[in-house]
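Re: beginner question about structure tokens

> Can someone show what the tokenized structure looks like for a real chain? I only ever see the sequence side.

Sure, here's an example I had lying around. Input first:
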Amino acid sequence: MSSQEQGRISAQLVVKILTKRFNDLPLITIPKTIPMFNYKMLEKHNVSMSMLPKNSKILNKPKTFIENNQNSISVILVVFPIVILFLLIIIYNIIVNRRIEKKLTIQSTFDEVLLKNVNSIVFWCNCEEEVIKYNDAFSNMIGKSTKDIIGVKIEELIPTLYKKIKNDGHSTNKIEFSHKINKKMHWFLLGKYNIKISDNNLGFIVVMQDVTKEKKKCPRETSF
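And the corresponding structure tokens:
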């Protein structure tokens, strides 16, 4: 029994005796003891902890790693989630920036083609042969608005042109093609240029040069 426990019980007995409450005096037969052992002595005599009585108290027991580094561990537990969150944000920004860079690259490529062919009809198809970009000259030629062009297969928009591209269209080769615009026949020389949109997505740009005037001036020299 610890000294604190003995003092507490003794004080209770003194109070009861002074107040003449003799009937309330307890009969103490078995003292409530708490076995105490010195850790260093247990180590010295090679005594296993499992051999000690239940509820034994070990004195001078060395602190565990967690107990010795409790403050540092607490700081790590607070800081670590914040660091992970920042890393996730950085990774997300990198992914978003790469996607934006790809879109800008695609856009700049298409704009470059437009600049070099300001007076030509230009449109761009993805690997599914769907139109994804075009200039005003293209929409004027087929007489359709954006909602009826974007995402629509070129085969559905201009079947005759699709057949030409499919049969004769090889990168940098000029293809002869004729088409009616506002009920008037126009003649074109067109070129199909393959372009890489992404790692697994190979599209193509078609540039159509209107040579109607040249055809009318020199009908014998130009064959369509």
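Each token stands for a local structural state, so reading them left to right follows the chain. The mean pLDDT is 80.
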